[in-house]
Amino acid sequence: MAAADENENILNRAKKAVQDLYDFRDHFFEKNDIERAIHKTEELGLELTKVVALLDEIQSQIKNRAEYMLQRGRALNVMPEFSSEALECLSKAVKLDPKLVEAWNQLGECYWKNKDIEAARNCFNGALNHSRNKVSLRNLSMVLRQLGKTKEERAKFIQESVEHAKEAVQLDYGDGTSWFIAGNAYLTVFFNGGQKSGILKQCLGAYSQAEKDTVQKSNPDLYFNRATIFKFQEDYVAALDGYKMAQSLDPMSSEPKEKLSELITYLQRVTQLVQQKGKLKAKRLHQLIASIKESDLGPYGGGSYTPPTGDPVKLEVTPLSRLKPGPNPERVVLGKVVCSVGSDKPIPFTFAMVDAEGTCFAVNIYNIAQGQGTIIGDSVAVPEPYVQSNDFEFDKKNIKFSSMRVDTPVALVVNAKKLGLEKQAPAEVSLYSKSE
Length: 436
Hints:
Blueprint: H1 2-26, H2 28-31, H3 40-58, H4 65-76, H5 84-96, H6 101-113, H7 117-130, H8 134-144, H9 151-171, H10 176-192, H11 197-211, H12 220-232, H13 236-249, H14 254-275, H15 282-290, E1 304-305, E2 313-314, E3 316-317, E4 326-327, E5 331-340, E6 349-354, E7 360-365, E8 379-383, E9 386-394, E10 397-406, E11 413-414, E12 417-418
Parallel strand pairs: 3-5, 7-10
Antiparallel strand pairs: 1-2, 4-9, 5-6, 5-8, 6-7, 8-11, 9-10, 11-12
């Protein structure tokens, strides 16, 4: 009996050491300033070396080989990169004890890091065959979003992903990681399912719940993905702050830094082009403004517009200077394109236009098919424009311009003709996550 107790004590010692290793990783910023983020991975590696040395020392004293292989594999799996040794240990653990749910979950995560999606999926399903647990559910939610060759298949897997994430949350309402995975699932639905505002609200709500958890509060992926939403919503200050926070929490990753730089460059370029009215020469600018005529309104002329379905909408031609921030119902603006804003990431397609008074605004068009943007000299009519006034400073860079948001190109009239559905395509935005 004493020998059995001693064996159990040694196994518990191993479990505690491995759990302490994960606590070191997950709660690093509770004990360290964010300026020390650059040292986190290195110090985690040093802690891992200590734990592996302990496991080597007590290996012969642990009789339960499946549990020992699980703890060793789990320890090696703590690092962000794939470990072939962890894969070997965890594979042995599930062979020795196929009912060891945690081993299946760790093995699935190991395969995921190695980009073996089907193997990861099989592991998480295997774990769920033994127990409905939040770890398997949320991990399977991540996996399913990577599957499907056709649009229909992807839609089916994405919906299954949401259901698994929701079940994980229901199993432990206070678990921030499950909320984070649920937020990612909702975000995928948003960008693949018609961009319904209600879905985006659910996504942001899930991220807010995740942030209440001490582990997720220091997760750079949470701030990065939420910044992606803010950028899409044109809440640029929140987006910049989010990318900067993600960069601070994970300074070794290039993605947050690149996105932050891209957005700053984009905003500076828009500011410059709007303020300088496309950098057109005075004569060319005067010619464009003088060429604006009421007939360019096309179907939006005559004071009202009747859509294919619905009642007629009153439209009053309004100078850009008289628009107010937010929605401008029953208004239509008309102007000429003076430039487009080049970007490696064409979401949105941005151009600048001047009206008959010479006022210049940026126009952001979402869900436009590639290569279907406007060119200099095009006349453009925007009905019931949604206006945003941007005026702020970020990292000593001044951003100042007014813009109009257009959620679909089919709302526009270009050169007196209403754009058709062939100009429309869904905006695709990728999530970023080391675990995704």
